[in-house]
């Protein structure tokens, strides 16, 4: 009873009693357990390192607040939105889902060496108790503001290379391993060739285990990876939030518009940063329960063959809310069972879903216009037979209540973030970026093109 009262005191405030569930409480406990375990074992936060006992309590309170973030970010809004569509009650998109640009998250993830990586959008989001502590810590070490700016940098001023060096600390892959420059797989430090690539590329590695040589090596890797994926402040923060959920054993279920970068971000984190195995299961209306069970049994056999303690199989269910068998997917991802049988611990479950959102009046008018390509009557009848709603922007089915508890709104790119992505991607075009006038013109053209499609189609375009 004492434990229950203590948890209620820190969990219940500022929550809508109509939406509190056991699942939310279990998420809160899982996140807080991971954060407090890292906090207790980290050298920065040890009792001997903190000059004031009250400061340590203030830091613990900051962890509690960040744990609450995972149970209040978008669950209530997604549930209200889903019910409003079902009941024909009008609800604006901006009111239905908490948009990424309207929240100010603060939490932290712990790296492979148990060092903290702080997650925030702006340095002003960092709790003052934490800033005060690190000022005292770095002053005692004689580092003053140099150390503080390193610990709490303004992410908007960092480059792709800077972000990669930080994300590389999530594993030991780019510290003491040989790396294939083509597939970026990791091998023993002394191995010479890649076993996976047909070209048998020669492996690359740091010159030494010194911190300077390791950073040079990591920045070289960052440059090589930039051709496939570009890290920005936006996707770096989202990547850390995904990583923290995985650390806590929570299924990562992301809701976001098509094309907002969900799949590419997960592939980069899983394969390039962590070097884990990734299986992408693309879900659609034709995926039956038998297909899902057959796939899962194949994944179980794969995992059973793993020998390494740290090896995990990441299973990503893309567009999981497009099948009527979503109840089976809920059992797999949320309950970690398949037909009642427990699934191996070495499986990590992730999923992406489209928002259940009605079309705008303009889109409905365009659908009914006798212009361009249209779905024929037979295809429309099949959709109706499957129980879908033609008024929805995406062909999706309602999600089970339990699943909604784990939904995290990924949102869609706002104009500022989109501009950053365009600039960074165009910088990869060496000859274009050398001509500043043409480079800036291309940026404006692409941005105006995106805005044009959003005006005539929808906010998600």
Automatic annotation (TrEMBL):
Sections of the chain in a coiled coil: none
InterPro entries reported for this sequence: P-loop_NTPase, RNF213
Pfam families according to UniProt: AAA_7
Domain of life: Eukaryota
Gene3D superfamilies: P-loop containing nucleotide triphosphate hydrolases
Gene Ontology MF term list: ATP hydrolysis activity; ubiquitin-protein transferase activity
Protein name, entry field: AAA+ ATPase domain-containing protein
Organism field: Rotaria socialis
